[in-house]
């Protein structure tokens, strides 16, 4: 069995679950399509906690995503495949999408970039972020828009990018200088109110 056949078999094993358990389709559709908004909201909430560590985490996550996206586009020039629903028959397709190169998965790159970065900064709660990233990757297969290889390669690119950024970016003095400058400007515009002491 070659890798493409294994890729298709793994896709069938996951995607066909939507036919066997149709009651789960709405949940996987929601995960595949709408969790991106929750991720964006959480990143904003982390940023506006006004905690420097949280802000460095968001900066690293954003840099990781940019780096992983560039690497993903390069990977897409080395291998091309359309979405499973465009190449295979009887796919449980829950999401309407234009046919193009689905390798690697952009959704997976986005979620693993942010979730792995969050995990690296917050090990105790980070496992929940990692579970979310895995669920999103799985959901993209379930709804019929990506092969397992699309998701796996997207995840590996993002994990490698996150580790690289986490180890290097916080060491650059100019990043801390820019963050400090931003925080001074923010405090001038939106000063933090002192907490009132209880009686």
From TrEMBL:
<dbReference type="InterPro" id="IPR000326">
    <property type="entry name" value="PAP2/HPO"/>
</dbReference>
<keyword id="KW-1133">Transmembrane helix</keyword>
<keyword id="KW-0812">Transmembrane</keyword>
<keyword id="KW-0472">Membrane</keyword>
<feature type="domain" description="Phosphatidic acid phosphatase type 2/haloperoxidase">
    <location>
        <begin position="58"/>
        <end position="166"/>
    </location>
</feature>
<dbReference type="InterPro" id="IPR033879">
    <property type="entry name" value="UPP_Pase"/>
</dbReference>
<dbReference type="InterPro" id="IPR036938">
    <property type="entry name" value="PAP2/HPO_sf"/>
</dbReference>
<dbReference type="Pfam" id="PF01569">
    <property type="entry name" value="PAP2"/>
</dbReference>
<feature type="transmembrane region" description="Helical">
    <location>
        <begin position="27"/>
        <end position="49"/>
    </location>
</feature>
<protein>
    <submittedName>
        <fullName>Undecaprenyl-diphosphatase</fullName>
    </submittedName>
</protein>
<feature type="transmembrane region" description="Helical">
    <location>
        <begin position="128"/>
        <end position="145"/>
    </location>
</feature>
<feature type="transmembrane region" description="Helical">
    <location>
        <begin position="151"/>
        <end position="174"/>
    </location>
</feature>
<dbReference type="GO" id="GO:0050380">
    <property type="term" value="F:undecaprenyl-diphosphatase activity"/>
</dbReference>
<dbReference type="GO" id="GO:0005886">
    <property type="term" value="C:plasma membrane"/>
</dbReference>
């Amino acid at each position: 069995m070659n890798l493409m056949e294994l890729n298709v078999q793994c896709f069938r094993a996951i995607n066909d679950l939507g036919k066997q358990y149709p009651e789960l389709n709405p949940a996987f559709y929601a995960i595949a399509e709408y969790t991106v908004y929750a991720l964006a909201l959480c990143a904003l909430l982390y940023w506006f906690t006004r905690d420097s560590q949280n802000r460095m985490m968001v900066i690293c996550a954003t840099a990781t995503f940019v780096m992983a996206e560039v690497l993903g586009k390069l990977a897409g020039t080395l291998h091309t495949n359309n979405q499973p629903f465009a190449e295979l028959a009887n796919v449980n397709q829950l999401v309407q999408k234009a046919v193009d190169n689905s390798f690697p998965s952009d959704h997976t790159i986005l979620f693993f970039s942010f979730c792995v970065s969050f995990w690296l900064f917050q090990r105790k709660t980070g496992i929940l972020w990692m579970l979310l990233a895995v669920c999103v990757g799985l959901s993209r297969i379930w709804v019929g828009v990506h092969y397992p290889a699309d998701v796996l390669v997207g995840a590996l690119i993002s994990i490698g990018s996150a580790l690289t950024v986490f180890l290097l970016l916080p060491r650059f003095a100019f990043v801390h200088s820019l963050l400090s400058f931003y925080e001074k400007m923010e405090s001038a515009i939106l000063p933090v109110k002192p907490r009132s002491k209880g009686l």
